[in-house]
Amino acid sequence: MHISEGVLSAPVLGVGAVLAAVGTAVGLKRLDYDRLMTVAILSAAFFVASLIHVPIGPSSAHLIMNGLLGALLGWAAFPAILTGLLLQAVLFQYGGLAVLGVNACDMAYPAVACFYLFRPLLRSTGKRRAVGAFCCGFFSVLFSALLTAVALEFSDEGFFAAAKILVAVHLPIMVAEGLITAMVVSYLAKTRPELLRGEVAR
Fold first, then answer.
1. Cα(116)–Cα(142) distance, rounded to whole angstroms?
2. What is the CATH code for 10-196?
3. Tens of pLDDT along 142-197?
4. Which of 4, 6, 32, 145 is least enclosed, having the fewest CB within 10 Å?
């Protein structure tokens, strides 16, 4: 779902950079020092997930895991995702430095939004918590696809065509990420419940 260099217009790139800077600043401000290791591990998971490509007909898609980061980190997911995207751009030329801000917004803001939308469920126990985690994984990918399509529309690339393609290709990924996020959160609730405290408890 990375947008490549040379696709977006200068105003879209500028707005993306500003919004990414704001999100990163808020995320760093909300980041507790004692959760720094957790953020680093989840950022690494986000980075590695992009290397796992799933064939879908003639095309392919890859896991994103932004919903999992959102469910566990809240606003701190923003700097974690930005770091992962930066490494992807530098090491594997996924996206690029010029579009880093837009790509970060497309991935991180949905993660944060889903955290707040489904926080009441994440605060619950048992099946309700699992449902909230699934929704975080599913809808964060859906919102990311729509935001990417919006960025393309404002660069005259065609919103509806882009939205249809992005949503259709990533629909299996949405389901997979919802299931993965639900399983991880349920597992952590039993083995490391302290990782679910912090942002979720606020």
1. 16
2. 1.10.1760.20
3. 998 888 888 877 776 565 676 677 778 788 889 999 999 999 999 988 888 877 76
4. 6
Return the domain boundaries, the chain: 10-196
pTM of the model: 0.86
